[in-house]
Each structure stands twice: as structure tokens, then as C-alpha cells.
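Batch manifest line 388
LIGAND: 4'-deoxy-4'-aminopyridoxal-5'-phosphate
JOB: complex structure
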Amino acid sequence: MKDRKLLMIPGPIEFTPEVMRAMAMPTTSHVAADFIQVFGQALDRMQQVFLCPEGQPFVVAGSGTLAMDMAAANLTEPGDQVLVVNTGYFGDRFAAILERYGATVTQVRSRAVGDAPSLEEVEAALQRQGYKLMTITHVDTSTAVRADVQRLAALGHQCGVLVVVDGVCATGGEELRQTDWQVDLALTASQKAIGVPPGLALLVAGPRAMDAFRRRKNPVGSYYSDWTLWLPIMEAYQARQAGYFGTPPVNLIWALNTSLSQILGEGMETRVARHRRLSKAFKASMAALGMDQLPVRPEVAADTMTAAYYPDNVTASVLGHINQAGVILAGGLYPTIKERYFRVGHMGAVTPSDILTTVGAIEYGLARAGHRFEPGAGLDAAQSILLG
Ligand code: PMP
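JOB STATUS: finished
ARTIFACT:
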């Protein structure tokens, strides 16, 4: 028996062998000539992956929550009004972080779990008072709901607010055109569709975000998050010079550069289309097995992941059976219903065979859990889309 299972949770994901080799290389100095080239190249490639050639990239050791912290710490000042477009657990987290830095937060929430607030509701909220900034969770990992970033950002711009997108479960898998869509700050983390083990907070700040940061009246309320300290370092490496503020996670940055090169080699449009097709195949298989999804309509469903309710009489213990078949899935996260559903990540280097393996393992688990269905129905549904 292999002692390795297929990791199909919504992050961390399965990484490519090239990325894993970069992680295992002898660690170089952070001021070595080859590392300076690699860090500089990774920063250039961030601009290309985010489709924001004029943006200022930041790559800092930390998780996605640090990227959110940096957005809040650098772009808001005590007393600023902020609007959070909330589609789940990570909207709540953004609100909590913003409040920690003294912002006054208003939230526009979905009417039901699995839905997204309508554009009209967000527009009405934006018109009610002057906000400095709004946040959008591109894909909320607790609900698998995808927000319409393009249209929401356009609304934000009409109302003169800075638009911040949490793309932790999206960037590198869902479509993002940061410049064209007028997203002022896009942030993510390494461990999901970017395809690098956990440990990097990744941000690209557009010109309006950098202006707002430069016009601050108060010092940034966090030392580690302060762009004043990180900006010279990013500028130095992008100019192919060394800089030091905090020791960069050298191997992770080698791995990031490798993964960004693979992403750009595939091409952003091809990559987004692959995620769309694999997601469609996986979601069709869940429906064929009689499972409803959290997102209430296909238009609000993510392509990087799926959240599905267990069938009647099946509990979270089915995840143990699925694990025995060799596939690791995640339980629910949204507090009020977390016992009732499970989550599957299908992003990054995911292949059609990963999808089929996962559907097969889910069928195995459901059968072991006593659920009655036609074995092979999920695989059939997935294949018909993969082969179509
Ligand atoms: N935002 C979203 C949408 C996420 O999915 C996550 C992580 N699951 C985070 C933020 C926080 O990232 P991290 O766990 O890396 O701190």
C-alpha cells in the first residue's frame, strides 16, 4: 500500500514535483546572487499572474491572514468607514481585523448561507455613506460562494472607494484581471491555487492603494505589517538588488518563482478554463450522487472548490471512509451548519484523474456509510463532462 493519500482539501493542495524540489534545495543566502534574481523574477511574475503590470507586489513570510492584516493595517486609519461584502467566515475575519485597526465596519451580508449579497444591495450600502474602502472575498472557503468581483469593483469605483479583494481561495484559479477590473489591492496566500506550500502572504497593490498608503496621517499600527518597512525591500529585489528587513523564507520564494513560471507557462486564460471545466465535472458528479451544494445558484459557485451537503442519514464520519479509499477531504467550516456538509478543493495542478479519483473515493465512502445510490453514477456524470 502507498502511504500517501490525495490531498483534495481547499488548501493546502497537491503541489507539483518541481515546486517540491525547490522546497528541498539547499537553502541559499537571502543575499546570494542567484536568490536575488529569483526573488526579483517572482515579484515580476506576481504582476503578470494578477494581471496588474503597474502594481506593487509584496511577498512576505506569513499566511493569508497576514495578507489581510497588511491590507487593513496599511490602508485604513482609526475612524475610517469600511464596507465588508460578506459571503461567509472569511468576511467575518476581515471585519474583525479591520476593527482591530480602528476602522468602523459595516457589513452587507448574504440573505442566506450560500448566497451572495446582490449588486443592488451593495450599491445601496455604498450610497448610504462615504466609505474609504470595501472588501470582497473572491471565494469564501467556508461556503464555496464566489463573489462577482468585476461588477462589485466597478460599483466601488463609481462610489470612490478603495477595492480590496481577498483572493486566498481564488487567485491563480478564478479569473482575476486586477488592472482591468480596477481592483486596488488583491491579496492571496501561497498554499492554494498559487501552488506553493503554506507560508507566504502575497499582495499586489495598485497605484490608488499605494497613494492612499502614502497619504496616511497616522503611522501603521503594526510593526511587521508596515509597508514602510517592506516597500524598500520589494523595490530592491525587483531592481535585482538585495535588501533586508526580515529574513525572507528563501526556499518558499524559490518554490514561488517555480510555480508562477508554471502558471504563466499554462497561460491565465487556459488555467481559468481548466478550473472551470474540472469544477463543472466535479459538481455534476455531486448532483448525480444526490448531493446539494451550499451555493444556492451556479452563478455564485466557485470553480476552485465545492461545498456539498451530506445526503440524508450520512454524517461527517463518511470522510473517514473516503480517507480509507485514499482521498483526504475537509469538513464544514461555516459555524451554524458545519456538521452538515463537506468541502473539496480542486485547484492548482489538479488533473482530470484527480477529479475521477476523488469522485470514486466519495462513492466508496457513501456506499460504506450505507447511502443508497447507483455506483458509478458520479463517475459517469464527471466523465461525460471531461470527455465532452
Ligand atoms: N481568506 C480566505 C478566503 C481563505 O480561504 C483563508 C484560508 N482558508 C484565509 C483568508 C486565511 O488564510 P490563512 O489560513 O493562510 O491565514
